[in-house]
Design brief:
With 354 residues, this protein is an alpha/beta fold. Helices cover 28% and strands 14% of the residues. The chain has nine helices and twelve strands. The strands form three sheets. Strands 3-2-1-4-9-8-10 form a seven-stranded mixed β-sheet, with helices on both faces. The chain has a three-stranded mixed β-sheet with strand order 5-12-11. A two-stranded antiparallel sheet has the order 6-7. Helix 1 crosses helix 9. It is globular and about 60 Å long. The relative contact order is 0.16.
Length: 354
Amino acid sequence: MLMSSNSMRTLSTAALRAVLTPLDAQPMDTVTSSSASNRFAYSTLLSSHLRDDSDEEIEGDIYILLTRLLLYQLLHHPETRTQRAIPFVVGLLPHVPAKVASLLESEGAIVKWIDPIMPRTWQSTPGSDRWADQFAKLQWFNMTEFDKMLYLDTDMMLTRPLDDIWDEPEAVPISTREPLMRDPIENGLLPDEPPLPLTYLFASVGEQGTRDPPHPRPVDIDTSLQGGFWMMKPDRQLFNYVMTVLEVGGPHGDAAHGRFSGGARFDTSFMEMGLLNYVFRSRGPMPWRIFTPGRWSCSVPNEEDLHNHCASLHDKFWFVGNPAGLPQLLVERWWHLLGRWEGFMDGSKDMQTV
């Protein structure tokens, strides 16, 4: 069960107003896309389905709130904001109200309207209703106006700036491997898949899977990449490849071409995450590169991840009753962050009326 953003605002403002610092109350013009070098971008997808574009609907949607909170962390929070003027791009689907785009732009985001993506030759059945639009993330491979993009799910809590990730050795394009035809499903290309680019960039972190210690979990060749945190280089040839795999890799009943239900090449219930784990499989021609475990993003986090200075913690920190058993320290830290955001927004409104 989720709290509405109105309920969050009432509780956290009363409880946390005292912790706000003057550094939070600064104008929202600290980052512009023109000042960023090398055309890098932080980014996320927002696909909320609202009944209408009323303020009540917009303010009551948890994922709009989380997008604004991630924006604040990346661009404005004094302890986590970019020091390199790297922009934050939000991909919006056509059904999201234009008022949401205007709101995000006023707070510093670059909004990109993107088309939804769904397979034409088979019916997707997402494992959760809220994953229904997630194939739209494949549009990132076509955003060639950027050299590199770091995708983050909206439910991230940052602990420090992410800027140094662009300098990691995994953040560099590498050569595509020669496909091995002795086991094309695992190691190479199937006949209906188009040619691969000569070089590519796709780096991520491994799924931790459990909150139990020890953290970080080691990553091996069978570890799944984390669909909520990845860096890539947009490339039209790669975009064409993933779009083709989306169609031919679905459950068409040809078990010779796939190892999942219906002969699919990837776990279609996990939507884009299943597809990305196939395209960038560790034994394939474009294996995903692994950011140092525990350094940049930790899913199902525990206190170890915070103490080890993991840069982003990925979980549903706002759930009423804490059904996932999150450590209280992390829940309190998230509510503290929400209070800082509220204070920043109130201060910005005050400056606009002066």
